[in-house]
Amino acid sequence: MAVFSRDSSGNRSQRPRSAAAARRAINSPALSLSSIATIPGFASPVAYSAPRGLTAAASQLRLNDKGEAEQFRSRRTSGSNAWQSEAWEYFDAIGEIKYAFSLVGSVISRIRIYAAVIDNPAEPPFPVRNNPLLDARLASAAERAIVRLDSAYGGQAGLLRDAALNLAVAGECYLVQIPERQGQGLPETWDIRSVDEIQIDQKGSYTIIPRRETGSYTGQKQPGQIILPQNAFIGRIWRAHPRYSDEADSSLRGLLDLCAELLLLNRTFRATARSRLNAGALYLPDGLSVAGSPDPDYPYDDDDSTNQAYTPEEAADEFEDQLMDAMTTPIRDEDSASAVVPLIIRGPAELGDKIKQFKFERSFDPALAQRADRVLERILQGLDVPKDIVTGLANVKYSNALQIDESLYKAHIEPLMLLIADAITVVYLRPYLIANGFDPAQVERICVWYDPSQVATRNDRAADADAGFDRGVISGDAWRRSHGFTEQDGPTPTEVALRLLREKGAITPELTEAMLGAVAPDVMKATRLASQATSLAPIPPEVERLLKGPQQIAEEATETETPTETPEPTPTTEV
Fold it and tell me: Does the pTM of the predicted model rise above 0.70?
C-alpha cells in the first residue's frame, strides 16, 4: 500500500512502528506555549512568521518515475556535488569540526516536534490537540502523522539529530521510509539517510547502501544493502544554495581548502615526529674492543692453527654484536646488569674522540605550527557554531558565557530547527493529510512545529533561583531543585521558628511567649511551675492564662468538659 493511501475510515491503514509509543504520544498532555515562553532559563518557540536564517527546500521523489530517476542519477554523478563526499571526509578527520557539529546535533535532538495549527502568523503555532479552531478528525490525523515518524536509530530524537548533522556537513539528506517487511518481521521505520547512502541501479530501483565497503551499486545485492519497494517514501531535504537553488549548501563547503591545508600540516608534523623514532647511526673506529672479553687467540682458530679467512673485520663484527647485545638486553630484561652497569670499551686513546652518533631526524618549524593554529582558527570561525563553544570557553570571561549560550541557540540551533520543521511540513505532513482526503485549505493551516523548552539558554540557574526566592516569586522546593537539594533537606517547623527568633530579636513579649510555647511547651510549663513555687503573691488569672498559652488552655478546657454521670433519683415510699 502506498505511503499516503487512505483506508475506509479516511485514516492511514498502516500502524505506527510502536503502537504503545503512539498511544503514549497521542495521550500525552497538550503543550502550553504560553507557559513555555515564560519559563526563565529555557528557550521558547518563535512566531511562525519569524524570518528564516536558512532557506529550506524539500521535494518528494517519485520512485516509479523514470525521468526523475535519471535526474537523480545525473545529480549524484555531477561534479557540483563532489564536495559533499570531501566534506564528510573532513568531518571524520578533523576533531574540532566533528565536535562542533555533533554538539549542534545533540542540542537539536532534545527538541520535540509536534503538529500545530497556524492561527496568527505573528504568534507561535498552537498544538492541534483539543484546539477549537480545528476539526477533530484533522487534528487526530496530524498527530498520528507525527507519531509515525519513528526512526530505528533513536526515535524522533535520533531522526532530528541525524537531520541536523547531514544538513550541517553536506547540506542535504533524505527522509526515507522503509515499509514493514512482513516476511522478516521488521516494522516500518522512518530514517534520515545521507547522500552517499541513497543510490540507484540501472533499472531505476532505489537502494540504501549502509556501509562504506559496499561501494557503488554493481547490479548484485551487497551485504546489508536494502532495496526499496515502489511504495516506499523518499523525501529530499536540503539547504538551498543562494546561486543555484537546486544545489545544496553548507558552511563547510567554503572551508574545504582550509581543511585540506590543515590535514597537510598535520601530516607534516606527524612525519617530523616519526623521524625522531629512529636511534640514528653510531660511528665506531676500528681498533676498539670490549674490555671484558678480549680475543687473545686472534688470528688463530680453535685448532691453534692460523686461519687466513679470519680477518680484522670479523673481529670488529664480534665487537658490534657485543655492543648491540649490551644495548638491547635491558629492553628485554629490566633486571639485567646491563641496565645499570655500563659497557667498558678498550682501545687506543686517540680513537675516543672519533666515536660519533648521527641522528636522522627533522626539526619542527615554528612557522608551520603558527600557520596550523591560524588555519584552525579560520575553520572554526567559518562553521555554523560559535568558535568559543568549540574551544571550550578557554579565553572567555564568565560574564560572557550567557551571551554565548544564547547566541548558540538564536543564531545556529533555532534557524536549523526552523529549516527541519518547514521541510518536514512541506515534504511529508501536508501531502499526507491531503492524500487522506482533507481540505487543502484547512491543511495549509497545519504545520510541524517544535518545543525547545528542554534547551536551556541560561547557564546559571542557581543565581536566578536566589533572585526569584528573594523576590518571593518561586517556592522553596523550586529553589532546592535549582541548587541540587531534595525536599528532605528543607527545614522543620521548629527550625523555622528558631531561625525567626534569631533573625527577628526585637519582637513583642506576647509573640515570644506564644512561639516558645509552640516550639518547646514542656520547657515553658516547667519554667512557669518553678516561678509559681518561688512567688510570694498569687499570680493573676490574666497572667497565668498568658503563661499557659492557647494550646495548654485548650487541653485543660477539654479535660474539664468531660461529662459526669447524673445520680439516679432515690425512690420515695408513700405511707
Answer: no
